[in-house]
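== Folding task for one protein ==

=== Format: two labelled lines per protein ===

==== Paired sequence and structure tokens ====
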Amino acid sequence: MKTTIISAALLSLALTSVQATAGGVPAEKLQKIINSSFKDPDKSTEAPATPTWASRLTPDTVQQACSEARNHPDKDLAADMEKAAAASVKYPEDGKLLGDWKNGEKIAQNGKGLRFNDKVDEPSGGNCYACHQIDKKELAFGTIGPPLTEYGKNRDFSEEAIKATYAKIYNSHTVVPCSHMPRFGTMGILTIDQIKDLTALLMDKESPVNK
């Protein structure tokens, strides 16, 4: 079971929000429209989505707060969100934050996961190249996010930077509230071991990212 720790102020804002961002349409009405448009992919009929699938369409308190703030939270809300995000991060029990950068590259290249036709027993990928340049040798990459080339080198491979990198991958709101980057750990998209591998891809001295 995933547990999201959230501050009282952030929870209050999310629960008292009555207006959606789409032209002032009431949030409740907008959510009803969204839910009705999604059908169960396992049914040949127009059956409504099962609770498991329907839950994917229901924003959590963080998403609600970001929608209310139009992804531009004020200073106080942003500080609350960063604290809540930091509290949600779970670190490896052995304290080791760097995994295998080679596995990290595979995860970064893998865009599978959380799609209705994906096998539930197969691990999700990070799809990191969709938004970032990472390895200089890779020609296909997105530019929504900043380039991550020489990421560890630019941060002197410090322990502080390693911990911050792990935390940001786990929950990007620790650094940028209402970030477009998925909350990979908090939302259960990637495992702790996968996040360690991605951290190694960025922070390991032997990773091609830092060559």
Helices lie at 8-16, 27-37, 51-54, 61-68, 75-88, 101-109, 159-170, 192-203. The chain is about 35% helix and 0% strand. The chain has a mean pLDDT of 85. The CA atoms of residues 5 and 87 lie 6 Å apart.
